[in-house]
Amino acid sequence: MDLGLKGRRAIVSAASKGLGRACAFSLAGEGVDLVLNARSADALEATAEEIRSAHGVNVTTVAADFNSDEGRAEILAKAGETDILVTNPGVRQIPGEYEDWTRADWDEWFNVHFFSSLEMITSVLPGMRARKFGRVVNISVSFIKFPQPHFAHSHSARLALSGAIASLVKETVRDNVTINTVCPGFFDTDALHTNLHNHARRGNTTYEAIVENRIQSVPAGRFADPKECGDLVTYLCSAQAGFIVGQNIINDGGVYQGLF
After folding, report:
1. Which PANTHER family does this UniProt record tie to the protein (predicted)?
2. pTM score, two decimals?
3. For the residues 215-226, what does the mean pLDDT come to?
4. In what order do the strands lie in the sheet with 248-251?
5. H/E segment holding residue 183
6. What Cα–Cα distance (Å) separates residue 105 from each residue in 109, 153, 157?
């Protein structure tokens, strides 16, 4: 199926590795020109060169902090007119104890998991609406559907972003501008394995035991390939997806047990 994306232009943040990288590759496979962002210049340029070689699309890199005002301004300045935005703060969630969190801690988590993406989204919406096409996909986590202990700081910020998106998109969809959120579960990325090593240390067990425990918790019986997230995001950016609006789409192999 032709997704109607050839020649479109996309910003993808946290694109040097993991889910952001998978989104970039999938969009490029549909002929989308890319503006890729990450903090590490070397890893980012390596990913960009792989994409150029594989798909022949134009790829611009912006090594900057997506979660800073200056970083977002630099991305927007280099991107110009943007048809697609994939927001991914690139900051993995870290468990903690609510008794230890100060107001400054809460503010920092809301900055990286709410305000940074929200401000990028609201920056690109006017141009998308004027051109009568726009697709925004926010990368979140499946746990916003069933928040976990020790993650109140991150899960609450991500929930706030989904709430803001649900309101905003009711204004933008009349101009063929959609905003949706993808909520991945256990994907085979560096971030997942870093978290699992940390869980093993905190639980006084082995990394292998933690991996086996997590896989057993997934009805699909495996960790997902990042490409499975990238391809879902790309479909949500397609011409055919204009009637999918404000959704929080779980992609977790059956872990979430709810119906809605």
Report:
1. 3-OXOACYL-(ACYL-CARRIER-PROTEIN) REDUCTASE (PTHR42879), NADPH-DEPENDENT REDUCTASE BACG (PTHR42879:SF6)
2. 0.95
3. 97
4. 59-63, 33-38, 9-12, 84-87, 134-139, 177-184, 248-251
5. strand 177-184
6. 6, 8, 12
Q: Which two tokens stand for residue 81?
A: 């007119």
Q: Give the Cα separation of 127 and 176 in Å (integer).
A: 12
Mutual angle of helices 103-110 and 152-172, in 10-degree steps: 40
Contact predicate 175/128, CB 8 Å: yes
Contacts 24+ apart (CB under 8 A), 238-243: 238/3, 238/4, 238/5, 238/30, 238/135, 239/3, 239/4, 239/5, 240/1, 240/3, 240/4, 241/135, 241/178, 242/173, 242/176, 242/178
Closest among 187, 184, 141, 132 to 161, alpha carbons compared: 141
- Give the other-Cβ count within 10 Å of 30's Cβ: 21
Q: Which two tokens stand for residue 241?
A: 């997806």
3-state secondary structure at position 148: coil
Phi, psi of 60 (to 5 degrees): -105, 135
Alpha helices in 56-88 (DSSP H): 69-79
The alpha carbon of residue 29 and the mean position of all alpha carbons in its chain are separated, in whole angstroms, by 18
147: helix, coil or strand?
coil
Quick: pLDDT tens for 125-180: 999 999 999 999 999 999 999 999 999 999 999 999 999 999 999 999 999 999 99
Distance, C-alpha 156 to centroid of its chain:
16
